[in-house]
Design goal:
Length: 77
Amino acid sequence: MKLKTAKYILFVFCLLMVVSIVVCSITKIKWIGYLGIAFALLGVLFWMIFGRCPHCGGFLGRSSGKYCPHCGKKVDW
């Protein structure tokens, strides 16, 4: 999977989490809040799996630079 696609999917997980938490706070339905927490955890897990350098496989973390902090090769976002 390309890193650009992975970042987009991570953004979708974050958006779903925010919407779930807001809906939970408005409606006071607890399971929707738990769903928001699940979206957050799934987003973290997804990024840990797919947020890696395509060259060396090193975890990119919050790095959004043009080069991998581990191997120094160019990363296409």
